[in-house]
Amino acid sequence: MKKFKEISPSEINKNTFDLIGKDWMLVTARKGGGCNTMTASWGGLGIMWNKPVAFTFIRPQRYTFGLIENEDYFTLSFYGEEYRNALKFCGTKSGRQYDKVKECGFTPVYDETSVYFEEAELVLVCKKLYGQGLNEESILNNETVLPNYNGDDYHKMYVSEIVKVLKKQ
Ligand SMILES: Cc1cc2nc3c(=O)[nH]c(=O)nc-3n(C[C@H](O)[C@H](O)[C@H](O)COP(=O)(O)O)c2cc1C
Predict the structure, then answer these.
(1) Which residues line ligand 1 (CB under 6 A)?
(2) Which range of residues forms the domain containing residue 102?
(3) Where residue 142 sits, what CATH number does that domain have?
């Protein structure tokens, strides 16, 4: 297995729209001595409060939501096309019913703060800075936004500092 090398956020050379919107990512958080992961394809990378940040949007009914709420850190990780089926699985099955890490054959790597998978091509270690639930009152364009919600499933937005970027060599 190839090793990871730490790079700076500005050295991420893949287009963000492709990385998140097309490749998708795994959002992974610790769960006691283990972890759970889910697929996400909405979000962004950028700058806030003069720091490199990730914007992540998690619906409250996700099992991962409770885990992220309990932890200071989580990871976003990106994979080669050969893991597309694994990401589909992690995006349609819940950690409440499945040990998704085991089912997908992912190899967890636990560092001081968080957990990610050895199979990833790129890992962002994220430290939560800010969290806010989206709500109906704040919607400025009903036509685009409202069809995505049932009324009780508004995402929570997390703005997290990207404290470490690991790239597969
Ligand atoms: C391509 C794709 C993208 C997704 N993006 C998100 C997302 O950005 N936010 C979110 O809350 N759920 C998203 N999901 C849904 C979760 O991955 C899915 O509900 C998952 O089963 C939750 O797992 P958990 O219950 O173990 O947390 C996405 C699913 C897929 C297939």
Answers:
(1) 24, 36, 38-42, 57-59, 62-64, 88, 91-96, 155
(2) 4-168
(3) 2.30.110.10
